[in-house]
Automatic annotation (TrEMBL):
Protein name: Leucyl aminopeptidase family protein
UniProt organism field: Sphingomonas tagetis
SUPFAM superfamilies, alphabetized: Zn-dependent exopeptidases
InterPro entries (alphabetical): Leucine_aapep/pepB (IPR011356), Macro_dom-like (IPR043472), Peptidase_M17_C (IPR000819), Peptidase_M17_N_1 (IPR048816)
One GO biological process term: proteolysis
UniProt xrefs under Gene3D superfamilies: Leucine Aminopeptidase, subunit E, domain 1, Zn peptidases
Residues covered by the Cytosol aminopeptidase domain: 309-316
Domain of life (superkingdom): Bacteria
Matches recorded under PANTHER family: LEUCINE AMINOPEPTIDASE-RELATED, PEPTIDASE B
Length: 462
């Protein structure tokens, strides 16, 4: 579903079926206010006012039925009526009382389908929701489109989503927004971004590594850098992953998908920033010229890195991209990456780990995550673990020996490439939902995107 205008429209009094959305605490008062015919239908459906109860009420004609949903979600939740957006037949709907507000987004997200490789079995057609708050529609559409972008990019297998395809996505975004696109590859990449080149050089058949950059906005506005990890497939390199660990590695470009999608929101809603988007795009492949355990890699910043694990490649390519971002003297840098399995062990699949070198930035992101129902959890940049990055022969290692503090040491590695005076946040996310929920199907998904957008809007929109 790409035509979002079919899913959400201004309420101009057009014919629509009614959705009765009732909180359990209001159930008794609501029930007592209903006519006998409705109370009879409620009794026949054994609705007791418990959250999740639902029923259909017949009208005077077969087409005039209405829907009841008992829901204990807060009015700020985008997923309050997502189950209805997913399950109801095609048609036009409005709430019986009040406005859907943030739930407009979940209504749209519930109608997402990834049908690139098979025919969509859902032939019902669009479910249109009416709103009396038309001013909220553009932002809702922008966030829905961004979420669909993340889902589509992450769901696409690596056979059709390599570095070249990420470049094509960025090129299309740049063309639509009037942005400038720059792509560095080949000898220029090897000389200027040696860690990106080292990680991706083993890939062949047009899947060569590259740094993709997009710039947009008034140069007089505050400079904002977004960096996204674009490992389009991760075998683990010569430290090869087992088959179970490789199964979902098409999603290892989920950070790039988030950065691209957020850039799309920023440009569509014209946030007054000078945007610099950077995506190091590689495939971590195995071949005779793959980078090796024990190699010492140069970085763009000039630091040398002893490669202790070829499966800790994401932080290497991000290091070079962060170094480039810093050269533009941004006010703020945000990076997104499916970086460590250890973060998932600690926090699970739905809760991205947040690291930040600025307490005010961290607090703003955490508050936005709560208000937007897009949660984050801060982990520390613990200085005491910095010594775990020591190398006997280089400035640092990319991955310490041992199982401890994996997300933290990865973030500390990235911190080496960002000076203290630039506010920086690193989001270690999963970009995948192993189990479906209303409005959130199994598969690739955006996590932290709405929280980060809300923070940026509060920081810059005024």
């Amino acid at each position: 579903m790409t035509d979002l205008s079919q899913l959400l429209q201004p309420d101009r009094g057009q014919p629509a079926r009614t959705i009765h959305l009732v909180h359990p605490d209001q159930w008794t008062d609501w029930l007592n206010a209903q006519p006998p015919r409705t109370r009879t239908a409620i009794a026949a459906n054994k609705v007791t006012g418990k959250a999740g109860n639902r029923a259909i009420f017949p009208g005077d004609t077969p087409d005039e039925w209405s829907m009841l949903l008992v829901c204990d979600d807060s009015e700020s939740s985008p997923y309050r009526i997502a189950s209805l957006g997913e399950q109801l037949p095609a048609g036009t709907y409005r709430l019986a009382q009040g406005e859907p507000g943030p739930a407009m987004l979940g209504w749209i997200l519930a109608q997402y389908r990834f049908d690139r490789y098979r025919k969509d079995e859902d032939s019902r057609g669009p479910r249109t929701l009416l709103t009396g708050e038309p001013g909220r529609i553009p932002e809702t559409f922008a966030l829905a489109a961004a979420t669909f972008t993340v889902r589509n990019l992450v769901n696409t297998p690596a056979s059709d989503m390599g570095p070249a395809e990420l470049e094509a996505e960025a090129a299309a975004l740049a063309k639509a927004a009037g942005a400038t696109l720059t792509v560095t590859r080949g000898d220029a990449l090897e000389q200027g971004y040696p860690m990106i080149h080292a990680v991706g050089r083993a890939a062949a058949n047009g899947r060569d590594p590259r740094l993709i950059e997009l710039e947009w906005g008034n140069p007089k506005h505050p400079r904002l850098a977004l960096v996204g990890k674009g490992v389009c497939f991760d075998t683990g390199g010569l430290d090869i992953k087992p088959s179970a660990g490789m199964r979902l590695m098409k999603k290892d470009m989920g950070g790039a998908a988030h950065a691209l999608a957020l850039a799309g929101v920023i440009m569509a809603l014209r946030l007054p920033v000078r945007l610099h988007l950077l995506i190091p795009a590689v495939e971590n492949a195995v071949s005779g010229n793959a980078f090796r355990p024990g190699d010492v890699l140069r970085s763009r910043k000039g630091l040398t890195v002893e490669n202790t694990n070829t499966d800790a490649e994401g932080r290497l390519i991000l290091g070079d991209a962060l170094a480039k971002a810093v050269e533009g003297k941004p006010q703020l840098i945000l990076d997104f990456a499916t970086l460590t399995g250890a973060a998932r062990v600690a926090l699970g699949p739905e809760l991205p780990a947040l690291f930040a070198n600025d307490d005010a930035l961290s607090a703003a992101l955490l508050d936005a995550g709560t208000s937007e129902h897009d949660p984050l959890w801060r982990l520390p940049l613990w200085d005491g673990y910095d010594e775990m990055l020591k190398s006997d022969i280089a400035d640092m290692v990319n991955a310490p020996d041992g199982p401890f503090a994996g997300p933290i040491t990865a973030a500390l590695f990235l911190r080496r490439f960002v000076p203290k005076e630039i506010a920086w946040a690193h989001l270690d996310l999963f970009a995948w939902r192993p189990t479906p929920k209303p409005g959130r199907p199994k598969g690739g998904d955006a996590m932290s995107l709405r929280a980060v957008w809300a923070m940026l809007k509060a920081r810059y929109a005024a």
